[in-house]
Amino acid sequence: MSVTIAMPRMSTDPELTAAQAKYPESLARAGADVCWVQLSDPERAVQEALTCDGLLLPGGGDMDPQFYGQKRIPACGEPNLLRDAAEPPLLRAFLAADKPVLGICRGIQVMNVVLGGTLYQDIKPFAHVPHNDHWAKIHTVTVRRGTKLEQILGQDTVLVNSQHHQAVDRIAPGLTLAALSEDGIVEAIEKPDAKFCLGVQWHPEWLSAADPAMQGLFDAFMAACRH
Q1: 160 bridge partner residues
Q2: For residue 100, what is the DSSP state?
Q3: What is the mean pLDDT of each run of 10 residues along the chain (227 residues)?
Q4: Distance between terminal CA atoms of the chain?
Q5: Do 190 and 111 touch, CB atoms closer than 8 A?
Q6: What is the CA radius of gyration of the chain?
Q7: Domain 3-226 adopts which CATH fold?
Q8: 203 in active site
Q9: The pTM is what?
Q10: Is the distance from CB of 158 to CB of 201 less than 8 angstroms?
Q11: Which of 153, 166, 218, 226 is most buried, by the most CB atoms less than 10 A from its CB?
C-alpha cells in the first residue's frame, strides 16, 4: 500500500530548505511519500490534504496568540498568516475523519491551541534548556507510562534536541500529557480517543537517521496510516 502524508508548505520558496528536507527523509524511511499542501486557499488545502492517509504538522514560527485569547508580547514572533489560517481546519478535518496526525514543534502547539489549550509565548523566563544550534541531543525527557508515546519509544526516558522558545501551557481538554522535560516543560501530548494523534516538542526528524527510537515515531505514524 502506498502511503501519502499531507504536510503544510512551510515557506513560499519552492526549493526545500535543509530543515524541510528532514521531514520527507524520515517519512521515506518509514515507507511514505509527502504531498506538500499549498495554504493560500484553506478550503482547497483541506480537500487536497484529505486525499492523503495522514497529516504531519511541522515546525515553524509562532502561532498568533489571539487563537488562545492572549495579546502578543514582544518576545512572541510575528504570526505566519497562511499557516495560522489553514492549519486549524486541516487538523480538525483529519480528526473528524479519524486519520492519523503527527505534530512536531509548532505542530504540537497548533494541536493544543486548536483543541482549546494555551501556550507560553516565551519560555526563556523559565530557564528552559537554551536553543541547540547543532540539533544534537541536549536534554532528557521523561515519558509517562501507559501512553502511546511510551509504547512507541519503548523506554521511560529519551534524549532530545531543543529548538523552541514557546511551549504548551494549559493542556487542551481531550489531550493528555505524554512527556515532560526535567524542568517541567510539556514535551509531548496525545489524544487517547483518536486513531493516532501525537505531538512532540522536539525535532525527531533531525535525530531519526541515527536513532531508532526517533525513527520509531515516524514508523508508528506510518503504521497507523496503513491501517
Answers
A1: 139
A2: -
A3: 87 58 95 94 97 96 97 94 96 98 98 98 82 79 97 96 94 98 95 97 95 97 95
A4: 10
A5: no
A6: 16
A7: Rossmann fold (3.40.50)
A8: yes
A9: 0.95
A10: no
A11: 218
